[in-house]
Amino acid sequence: MASLYIHIPYCAVKCPYCDFNSYAAREWPEDAYTAALVAELQTRATETPWSDTTIETIFFGGGTPSLFQASSIGQILDAIGRAWPVAADVEVTLEANPGSAEQARLRDFRLAGVNRLSLGIQSLHEDLLTTLGRVHGVEEARTAVDTARAAGFDNLNLDLMFAIPGQTRTQWSDDVRALLQHQPEHVAAYNLTYEPQTPFHAWRASGEVQPLGEDDELWMYEHVRAACAEAGYDHYEISNFARPGHTARHNRGYWEGRDYLGVGAGAHSYASHPGWGRRWSNHRLPERYIASATAGDATAATEDLAFETAAAEFMFLGLRQLDGVDPTAFHARFGQDLEEVHPEVATFRTDGFLEHRAGRLTLTNRGLLVADAIFATFL
């Protein structure tokens, strides 16, 4: 079983905090890019380890995949079905911006085979959307949720962002309450990060942007956790909350170290074998990707993972999940006890950041607040 990620790199506008491989454009070579994706899918289906697998989740990310026509998405899904067995309960997610969420368009995506929609709401305050460089407004965001329901989507994820410069606790509380009133099946609530090579990173360095204070950021995180719990959502990953039966199966595959194939410009793939695992990445520039995929080889680089890298990734990916990692599974994978390979775990347990619960090693509530610092020690 494997997951499949499809990268569509085009955006109407690139947000200043975004460090994804995406490109703002007024028009894009949709037919040529779709044909390149289909060509790569056909090639990958003949390669080890992808030739002998079943696809259990499909995720269209970007960029803004909803800018493509439903006919293009359908063409890609048809190519996947011809290349591999596809699980009967396959999860097919499409990311969409509220500004490209017209009802007819969303209905066509649903008819093409998309059964889970992820809307990048980010905020329900106009000033914060402006700060983030988003192209949609508050009314478009509210309408998009109703439009998605009317189009037939009964598995809906809504994204919210906190720690935005200038954001107040009241604004965040209002956003969380308003979003939960829509009763989405899934909520992703994540803090703004200042990634290198982005305008936000440069603006912070120059003083043009002032990051929100740490106390406010922690308060916002604790608030969304409490609000989601009260509304009946399971907090199953650091930034993700789901109603029972609606965890993001595709993303869980990443956190659990399962094999995934990425196709498209700059897409990454991972297989747990041979050795301690192998990664591939495609050419990043869309034009270069289209040419290389059409010629039969989109791969730009490969990496065979060292034992230390694989063991570290097992830890910091697994610990993102609230139910943590299984020490028995670690031993089965690496042939050594978890704390023998990672002696720092003992210190984290003593200091109250990690704990053993139900036979698994998990972050404590205290550990959740400093998770990135803990993860960094495994690298």
What's a concise summary of this model?
The chain is 41% helix and 22% strand. By secondary structure, the protein is α/β, with parallel strands linked by helices. The strands form four sheets. A nine-stranded mixed β-sheet has the order 9-10-8-7-6-5-4-1-11, sandwiched between helices. Strands 12-13-14 form a three-stranded antiparallel β-sheet. A two-stranded parallel ribbon has the order 2-3.
Describe the structure.
There is one protein chain. This protein has 379 residues and is α/β, with parallel strands linked by helices. It has two domains: 253 residues, TIM Barrel; 71 residues, Orthogonal Bundle (Arc Repressor Mutant, subunit A). The chain is built from 16 helices and 16 strands. The strands form four sheets. It has a nine-stranded mixed sheet, with helices on both faces. A three-stranded antiparallel sheet has the order 12-13-14. Strands 2-3 form a two-stranded parallel ribbon. Helix 1 runs parallel beside helix 2. The longest helix has 17 residues.
Number of helical segments with 4 or more residues: 16
Strand adjacency order, main sheet:
9-10-8-7-6-5-4-1-11
Helix content percent band: 40-55%
CATH homologous superfamily annotation of the largest domain: Aldolase class I
Distance between the termini: 28 Å
What proportion of the residues form beta strands (DSSP E)? 15-25%
Low-confidence stretches: none
What is the approximate shape?
A: globular
At the first level of CATH, the class of the largest domain is Alpha Beta
Kindly report the average pLDDT value: 96
Oligomer: single chain
What Rg do the Cα atoms give?
A: 21 Å
Q: The CATH topology of the largest domain, please?
A: TIM Barrel
Q: State the total count of DSSP E strands.
A: 16
